[in-house]
Amino acid sequence: MKELLAVFFISLGCCDVFSQGRIDGFYRGSGNATATLGAGFENHKDYLAGTDETDISRKLYYVNLFAAYGITDDLDVNVSLPYIEIDNNKNLQDISVFLKYRSLKKEYANGKLEVSVAGGFSTPVSDYNTGGLNDIGQQATVIETRAMAHYQTNSGWFATLQSGFSLKLEEVPNSLPITFKAGQALNNWYYDVYYDYQHSFGGIDYLETPPPQNFKRFGVDYHKVGGTGYRSFTKNFGAYISVSYVLGGRNTFQGPGYGIGLVANF
Questions:
Q1: Contact yes or no for 226/257 (Cβ under 8 A)
Q2: What pLDDT, on the 0 to 100 scale, is given for residue 5?
Q3: Disulfide-capable partner of 240 in 64, 123, 230, 262 (CB 3.0 to 4.6 Å)?
């Protein structure tokens, strides 16, 4: 099963809009490693200034490198680093490092329930701009905490719910994330659908105050849905495709996203 598990991380580490939850319900296993190289395109049709729709649009491209390692059977570490391009703004964005620990496992006749906790951080690795809607991030160092419940049946069907708190050390508002994901993980195939939500505590809205505005102080909320399909071709190699759509929120771009990538296991 472990050759399928990297698919859960294909979108992590870019910016909040790409997130599908900072952790997943599966573990690499002691001594096992995974590397994923993904790329994607976001076609943002319009922008919500606060909650008011505007005709501001943009196109965003990204490449993301992800690696995970099983320190023990119950403890994983993962690292993610994205490169993002929006018009003339292009650079490496924020590196993300997470530790995930399985604190509870209960076996049942038809499946198993697992509870995990995780903690980590993300921080900028380049001096990218902040001050416009085409910037690739908000230049914030973030301390992350998560808790997650994961149930999986013996036939591979699963459901995962996670939430936590994102403490941001600069002027960027703190936020509460919630992600629900359901799907099936088989020997050679994996697929899921998910709902991703973020609520920011306070912050200002775009066009709320006279310019120049402090873009680091924007509060960003969003509702996002999506899905992923993955196929393993050998024991150690596979590929995925993904689609998503940002439905609405606050100070966020709306529109579809598409991703592809390669996964290698060691």
A1: yes
A2: 52
A3: 230
